[in-house]
Amino acid sequence: MGKSVENTANFEQLFKDNYAKLCYFATQLLNDSEAANDVVQETFMTFWNLNPEEKKNIGSVNGFLYQSVKNASLNRLRRQKLEHSYLNKQDVEPIEDAVALNLMIKSEVIAEINKVLETLPASCQQIFRMGYLEGLKNHEIADALDISINTVKTQKKRGLQLLKMRLNPDFFAIAALFLLK
Fold this sequence. Notes:
The protein is an all-alpha fold and about 180 residues long. It has helices spanning about 10-30, 35-50, 50-55, 60-90, 95-115, 120-135, 140-145, 150-165, 170-180.
């Protein structure tokens, strides 16, 4: 192929002759075949869009293509490195902070509730855990323990009263928010 690639047929032949090997070259640089395909296609588009005078000034078309693919690949790697570095330096999103804080508070509340629950009578403790911590419905608890629904309701109410008496009032308010969801 001569120095000039001006018509479509010549360009198609240049593409067929070089596309696979340029993709392989770019893949070796990028370790990403999809990104490599993008780089090679962009390189061919850049070459296609050169005006005839610019194409004449290219000493070796193959050299131009390889150099263009290499430069585009390295630029992509630099951009990825900068983006990665930038993202790592960013503060944690406020939403993530709020979620983490909420989870920490919930963990503390549950730990405190568990301490107080251990002081409750065994049957009251079991029903309270099943209802409020495991999220079972009254009828599910009644069926699982083979007791009446009224007994479940009474024990849950008694557990809440004992919890309220044994926890700091402010802490109980927070605990109630988690338990009664």
